[in-house]
Amino acid sequence: MARAGFTAITAGRIKFGRDGRWYCDDEVIPNRAICDLFSRLLRVEADGRARLELGEDRADVLIEDTPWVVTQVEGEPDLGFVAVLNDGTREPLDVTRLRAGPDHVLYCRVKGGQHEARLLRAAYYALTRWAEGADGACVLRVRDQVVALPTSST
User: Fold this and answer.
1) To the nearest whole number, what is the mean pLDDT of the chain?
2) Strands of the 68-76 sheet, one edge to the other
3) Fold (CATH) for 2-63
4) 34-38 contact pairs (CB < 8 A, 24+)
5) CB of 73 within 8 A of CB of 98?
């Protein structure tokens, strides 16, 4: 059903990819409205299972990396930064809690610090455009703090 532009929750195996896209049976779901709806409906249970629930329909979701991604970073060093998530929510970005994963991918804490979110490429570049070199490290000067950006782990 993904090719027709509509994907019901129970249509097939639903996956949220590391690229921030929704998939049904390994095909990208092309309907932006359905993807936005899935992003808003996503719930992560206490046991770590991700689920979509809409009315009587329910489906488990395979999470490839993180249950939410940061699509944009807004703000500037003097005011601080805001992370815009794929579900449309906006949260203050605590740059002191950034973590680097493989290939220099940055992660931050979201949803009250309960979950990790991957910064997509556009968000990464929006944030790192404010970075400076200092003593061999890459730092952000945010308000009165100098925060070293984490380096990639292997």
Assistant:
1) 90
2) 90-93, 80-85, 68-76, 115-119, 106-110, 99-100
3) duf1285 like fold (3.10.540)
4) 34/5, 34/6, 34/7, 36/87, 36/88, 38/14
5) no
Residue 16 has pLDDT above 90, yes or no: yes
Q: Record the pTM.
A: 0.87
DSSP state of 5: T
- Contact in structure between 151 and 99 (CB atoms under 8 Å): no
Where do the domains of the chain lie? 2-63, 68-148
Measure CA of the first residue to CA of the last residue in the chain; give whole Å.
38
Query: What is residue 11's predicted lDDT score, i.e. its pLDDT?
Result: 64
